[in-house]
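Crash report, auto-generated. Payload:
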Amino acid sequence: MNLTLKIWRQKNSKEAGNFVSYNVTDISADMSFLEMFDVLNEQLISKGEEPIAFDHDCREGICGMCSMYINGRAHGPAQGTTTCQLHMRKFKDGDTITVEPWRASSFPVIKDLVVDRSAFDHIISAGGFISVNTGNAKDANNIPVPKDNADNAFAAAACIGCGACVAACKNSSAMLFVSAKVSQLALLPQGQVERETRVLNMVKQMDEEGFGSCTNTGACEAECPKEISVENIARLNREYLLANLKK
Amino acid sequence: MTRFLTSSLGKKIVMALTGLFLISFLVVHCGINALIFYNDGGLTFNAGAEFMGTNPIIRTMEIVLFIGILLHIYQALVLTINNNKARPIKYAVNAANSNSKWYSRSMGLLGTLILMFLIIHLKHFWVLSRFTDHLTSGEETLFDEMKEVFESPAVVVVYSLAMVSLGYHLLHGFYSAFQTLGLNNKKYTPLIRNAGLIFSIIIPFVFAMMPIAIHLGWVN
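Recovered output after restart:
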């Protein structure tokens, strides 16, 4: 495959960026999107040019590091797929592919396609945890959990915190991320102790980080590589409303 | 309470509650106005209008209604400004249609069109009945006034297009209000979605039929 890539290049967070076009040739359809980037970067390095900076780590769709806005979609055109698991067979020979970083004031660009997602870490620090005294591992079935709750908590916990929800949302809202993190703990007995303070603190932090608000367009759910449901957002609204009534 | 109302979630809940309140108003307004379809020269309709115009509970609710509309508009403006700030640099390429419906992303635009219509609509009927003695003097009834206003084809077109905007605004707003209030459930959400779809077709359709029917002389 021969492709034209229009890639956002930005030296650092202070300087303005712009699109630069590159041509890549002999790309295998079985390569992942990031492997195609590796090929391009090898070319750039051999020419003595600065390679394109992009986030990646596990390359097996579970770490949440990769973050590219490909042809107008977070993680590209494939459903329920991270950029690293996106394969070049989803594109056609001769295609022009535009690649941009996540765009949100809360996710400032560090360099090229790399954005700073510390805002998510701050939200987790504000309440995305449970306080327990550690000791010997207990038997897994000591605390009964209804199957439905276990399944829903597990589905919410699948969130890898990549930020595609923020990137795809027209308001750069972090509601899907926050709702997944609140839900996974609110649904389980272990999460009950801090249930109210958690949702209050995490929402407060989310607002302080400057994310927009949810207008229920559903773009986050459609673009989420882990297909987290907007049912979680309704649960977050519910949890927040009830916590405000109690505290 | 301040914490709640200044949070992004609290603001959305105000949007949802005022939105649902305005939806309930639409039902009453549509129901009373549909009395013109009795086709009795506006007799039943005028009686309904008379009741709505003089009943003290309804008069109080009119004030609540205006507060509701203003809150809905104010909160929408605050949220829109914040949301725009959250993405100062837009995407060069954005395939938004592949992840969401256009009307769900255009609530502000649709709302503005409805507001523009509302101003015209209030001028046509509300200002006339509340601030002039045009109707109380017995010169004319509200039904006569409707016939007069809807003589103009331009007015009929504006009213009909406004109802299309209202339909799309409701199509997203109805479901969205429930979602924001935390009412999402595998069993009931499809029901809410369908109720919203039916509501956002029937109410604007019945409303739009009023100027059309009067203009074409189907009702007189």
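Post-recovery validation: The first helix of chain A runs from residue 33 to 46.
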